[in-house]
Design brief:
CATH topology of the largest domain: Rossmann fold
Strand content: 5-15%
CATH class of the largest domain: Alpha Beta
Number of helices: 16
Bound molecules: 1,3-dihydroxyacetonephosphate, iron/sulfur cluster
CATH superfamily of the largest domain: NadA-like
């Protein structure tokens, strides 16, 4: 806990510019709760030579007010590989912190809550991959970054939702094993001639959307543009006007400026884009990721204060897993 979480006049001044940016997505009554932590975290980051990396699903008081680097999994991995900071705080889930640690073995990498997992990462083990390789000898394994370091270590190359098709095609093979997300794999299979062998992992947030729900929104709102993450089931993607990673969805709204948009993805993402893009009407069905929502300002403050909990990876596993991530990053 922060020793003095009071909303003092000094804190109000130090955080005013942040509130100005998020005032259309954070009610004024909540600001005195967030502001003391925002001021304290921003001061502590300087003391520790630390950076906060925040995924697009973080709440706006994290994403817009304490993060140094924001983005989708691909951008966070790229930027983690470039930082000069001594300490990296991952405001995201555990696999994202592991990826940052793989790329920065000598740095302190913190995850403010060790329990911030992912249903996709939970869906597959290293032993499962070894079994798949026995069943499909010689077929390369492309692994979504939403996996543990042990699973990455058994893989040929990683990918994210932002580069999955390009990575699959970069291998120059007729067939690849693509895991663990069955729906992302189906989506990739539609975009390429490469045959895709899938696994039955699902994202517990995106699999909850239904085509009927989206059709109902379309019937209720004029000029509604629906954009969806490829972790959604195929019948949901079929209803969408655009499909892309979280960064590609943000870019779509920023550049195309639809009159009204529904982002079929985790709930906080719409808030974060809405803080930047004030002339678009956001329709927000609210599916929250319980893992992402474990990360709070109070936990970020505590992890920076105590330099705990740290992400550590067995060096033998790390060496192999790093190769799979670096192969992806080399792809450009
Ligand atoms: P992105 O790489 O598109 O940000 O997706 C990560 C994720 O966890 C989506 O659920
Ligand atoms: Fe994992 Fe889904 Fe949460 Fe992303 S939204 S971290 S894929 S459970």
């Amino acid at each position: 806990m922060l020793a003095n979480p009071d909303y003092t006049p000094e804190v109000a001044v130090a955080t005013a510019r942040y509130y100005d940016h998020v005032k259309n997505v954070i009610p004024a009554v909540e600001w005195p709760v967030h502001a003391p932590y925002i001021a304290a975290i921003n001061a502590l980051k300087k003391e520790r030579n630390a950076v906060v990396l925040a995924h697009n699903y973080m709440t706006p008081e994290i994403y817009h007010c304490v993060a140094d680097i924001t983005g989708d999994s691909l951008a966070l991995a790229r930027r983690a590989a470039q930082t000069d900071a001594d300490v990296i705080v991952m405001a995201g889930v555990h696999f994202m912190a592991e990826t940052a640690k793989l790329l920065n073995p000598g740095k302190t990498v913190l995850i403010p809550d060790m329990r911030a997992g992912c249903s996709l990462a939970e869906s597959i083990t290293a032993a499962d991959i070894r079994t798949l390789r026995e069943k499909h000898p010689g077929v390369p394994v492309v692994t979504y970054v939403n996996t543990s370091a042990e699973v990455k270590a058994e893989s040929d190359i990683c990918c994210t939702s932002g580069n999955a098709v390009a990575i699959v095609e970069s291998l120059g093979c007729d067939e690849v094993i693509f895991l663990p997300d069955e729906y992302l794999a189906n989506y990739v299979a539609q975009q390429t001639d490469v045959r895709i062998i899938t696994w039955k992992g699902h994202c517990e947030v995106h699999e909850r959307f239904t085509p009927q729900e989206l059709e109902d929104y379309r019937a209720s709102y004029d000029d509604l543009t629906i954009i969806a993450h490829p972790e959604c089931p195929p019948d949901v993607l079929a209803v969408a006007d655009f499909v892309g990673s979280t960064a590609q969805m943000s870019r779509f709204v920023e550049t195309r400026r639809p009159k009204r948009v529904l982002m079929v993805t985790e709930c906080s993402m719409s808030d974060n884009v809405a803080a930047d893009v004030t002339d678009v009407d956001f329709i927000r069905p609210c599916n929250l990721c319980p893992h992402m929502k474990r990360i709070t300002l109070a936990k970020i403050y505590e992890s920076l204060e105590n330099l705990e909990p740290r992400v550590e990876i067995d060096p033998k596993v790390a060496e192999k897993a790093r190769r799979a991530v670096e192969r992806m990053l080399e792809h450009g």
